[in-house]
TrEMBL record:
<dbReference type="GO" id="GO:0044281">
    <property type="term" value="P:small molecule metabolic process"/>
</dbReference>
<dbReference type="GO" id="GO:0003984">
    <property type="term" value="F:acetolactate synthase activity"/>
</dbReference>
<dbReference type="InterPro" id="IPR011766">
    <property type="entry name" value="TPP_enzyme_TPP-bd"/>
</dbReference>
<dbReference type="GO" id="GO:0050660">
    <property type="term" value="F:flavin adenine dinucleotide binding"/>
</dbReference>
<dbReference type="InterPro" id="IPR012001">
    <property type="entry name" value="Thiamin_PyroP_enz_TPP-bd_dom"/>
</dbReference>
<dbReference type="InterPro" id="IPR045229">
    <property type="entry name" value="TPP_enz"/>
</dbReference>
<dbReference type="GO" id="GO:0030976">
    <property type="term" value="F:thiamine pyrophosphate binding"/>
</dbReference>
<keyword id="KW-0786">Thiamine pyrophosphate</keyword>
<protein>
    <recommendedName>
        <fullName>Acetolactate synthase large subunit</fullName>
    </recommendedName>
</protein>
<comment type="similarity">
    <text>Belongs to the TPP enzyme family.</text>
</comment>
<feature type="domain" description="Thiamine pyrophosphate enzyme TPP-binding">
    <location>
        <begin position="405"/>
        <end position="533"/>
    </location>
</feature>
<feature type="domain" description="Thiamine pyrophosphate enzyme N-terminal TPP-binding">
    <location>
        <begin position="26"/>
        <end position="130"/>
    </location>
</feature>
<dbReference type="Pfam" id="PF02776">
    <property type="entry name" value="TPP_enzyme_N"/>
</dbReference>
<dbReference type="Pfam" id="PF02775">
    <property type="entry name" value="TPP_enzyme_C"/>
</dbReference>
<dbReference type="InterPro" id="IPR029061">
    <property type="entry name" value="THDP-binding"/>
</dbReference>
């Protein structure tokens, strides 16, 4: 079909067991058959009573890898991490409105990361809803807050078609959260129909006028910033952006928070728009024109008294080369052709850093990670305040992927690392994790242990909400005793080695960069998770 990708190829094993249009199955069985036929191979689950027929169907029908999370925000965060590495959706299994509510924070992050996820949320049977049983909720209202596509199935015959539509929506560029709400009788009733995969629209192409306008700005104007986000931060697009920059004199930056950045040797040493408002405003004060490539013009994470919401000058003009759903690499190639930009060697990122020494510092830890990480590592970064300077110290690391917290809802790091490991094909995942936010989704360690995943977690243990101490001062206040009690994580101190051990993950506490480097290097030779509590 013109303008569409072909439906995903169905594995031979799946093809033998699928008969499209067959109605000799119940709704749950049609759901599983349809998901498998649409190329969905992983289910991240925390099921309840309303989902037992879906669980039974997963038990009877081979082909779906099922991964249990002990809390729904772990489940949704794992699905986010899986998409970021695989660029194909997993399905989540969530229990009614409250279960979906538990998973909303990481669905918020996934929506900001533009990750494709299919949520299957159980619900009260259609005839039971009027009785207002204890778990009855406005599940649709909750789903709308994070979903680009949402549908409630009303009978078993619709479930397969609804599942195919949900997968199509999830796979639509750049990736979308799609939520199916499944009253339990639609799953246990007979009459299910296995649906065929639906074609998925290809990523839209940039408007040729937008390409010509960007080329004109680059040729004629000064103080131009090309701001990269989304798929513009992949290796091929980076090389084209560098060509355009070299031909025009424009500067390049990445958005502040990004779903996935390809970094290290042979790739661009891209800095990000800074998080602190004053630093960002100062860093962008020179800008007269901003060209957006799958990015948004920089604004503050929060408002502050007397400070502007926009972090670029009010007089600067903003130009869109591509929106998030458009093909950034193709647009940048067209831009280089329009500019007549010659091939340009990628900049030298310098030698691989040496390990840091002594007491932990952000710069020293970043150099240590860069010095010991294996080729092809995946960094899941929820280091929050301690990790703001990590980028400049890791440009010379081996090639790796860096995953950020995208929506600001803390508790993403441990689940993100877990899902990335499942989608990473055996690549080592390094989770740089603040201690306070780790406690939101600590149950992810248990899933890592159960699945024997190659994840090394470095807990940055300062025993306080350090970012909130800074934010408290940003609004013009100095913390007193009451405020400090709400921002401090001591009294009692958390023992991360014991917490990890209780979840089935081996761990150790260290106080120096030499120790953390040695333990990281040792953990990389193991095919199971390991946790390091770094006291900072």
């Amino acid at each position: 079909m013109p303008g569409h990708l072909a439906p995903p190829a169905i594995p031979a094993q799946a093809a033998r067991r699928i008969e499209f249009g067959r109605d000799a199955v119940n709704g749950a069985e049609s759901l599983v058959h349809t998901l498998l036929g649409c190329g969905v191979e992983v289910c991240f689950a925390n099921p309840g009573t309303s989902e037992m027929h879906f669980v039974a169907a997963l038990d009877r029908i081979p082909g779906m890898k099922c991964v249990l999370g002990l809390q729904e925000n772990v489940v949704t965060g794992m699905a986010d991490g899986y998409w970021r590495m695989m660029e194909k959706p997993a399905v989540t299994l969530l229990h009614c409105g409250p279960g979906l509510a538990n998973g909303l924070a990481n669905l918020h992050n996934a929506r900001r990361a533009r990750s494709g996820i299919v949520n299957c949320v159980g619900d009260q049977a259609t005839y039971h809803r009027p009785f207002d049983a204890p778990l009855t909720a406005d599940t649709e209202a909750l789903a709308r807050t994070v979903s680009q596509w949402m549908r409630t199935s009303t009978k078993a015959t619709d479930v397969g078609a609804d599942a195919a539509a949900a997968v199509q929506a999830a796979r639509t560029s750049p990736g979308q959260v799609a939520t199916m709400i499944l009253p339990s009788d639609t799953c246990w009733d007979e009459g299910g129909v296995v649906a065929k995969p639906l074609p998925v629209p290809v990523a839209q192409q940039a408007d040729p006028l937008a390409v010509r306008n960007a080329a004109r700005i680059l040729r004629e104007k000064k103080n131009v910033l090309i701001l990269l986000g989304g798929t513009a931060l992949r290796e091929g697009a980076q090389a084209l952006a560098w060509r355009a920059s070299q031909a025009s004199g424009a500067k390049l930056l990445a958005e502040g928070s990004n779903a996935r950045v390809q970094r290290g040797q042979g790739r661009l040493p891209l800095e990000r728009v800074p998080y602190p408002a004053d630093v960002a405003i100062n860093a962008l004060s020179w800008v007269e024109h901003v060209i957006l490539v799958n990015a948004k013009a920089p604004v503050g994470f929060f408002a502050y008294p007397g400070k502007p919401s926009k972090h670029y000058p009010e007089t600067a003009e903003v130009h869109v080369l591509t929106r998030y759903e458009q093909d950034a690499e193709a647009a940048l190639r067209a831009l280089c052709e329009e500019l007549g930009a010659p091939a340009a060697a990628m900049p030298d990122v310098g030698a691989r850093p040496e390990r840091g020494r002594g007491a932990p510092t952000p710069e020293g830890l970043a150099r240590t990670v860069a010095a010991v990480m294996p080729e092809g590592a995946i960094i899941a970064d929820e280091s929050v305040s301690f990790g703001r300077g990590f980028y400049s110290e890791t440009f010379g690391a081996p090639k790796h992927d860096w995953l950020h917290i995208t929506g600001g809802a803390i508790g993403c790091g441990l689940p993100l690392a877990t899902g990335a490991a499942i989608g990473g094909g055996g690549r080592r995942v390094i989770n740089l994790q603040a201690d306070g936010s780790a406690m939101y989704t600590v149950q992810a360690l248990w899933t890592q242990a159960r699945e024997q995943l190659p994840v090394t977690t470095v807990i940055l243990s300062n025993r306080k909400y350090q970012i909130l101490l800074g934010e408290y001062q940003n609004v013009g206040a100095n913390p007193g005793r009451t405020a400090m009690d709400m921002l401090d994580l001591g009294n009692p101190d958390m023992d991360w080695v014991k917490i990890a051990s209780g979840m089935g993950v081996e761990g150790a506490r260290v106080t120096t960069l030499e120790q953390v480097g040695d333990l990281m290097a040792q953990s990389f030779s193991r095919s199971r998770p390991f946790l390091i509590e770094l006291v900072i």
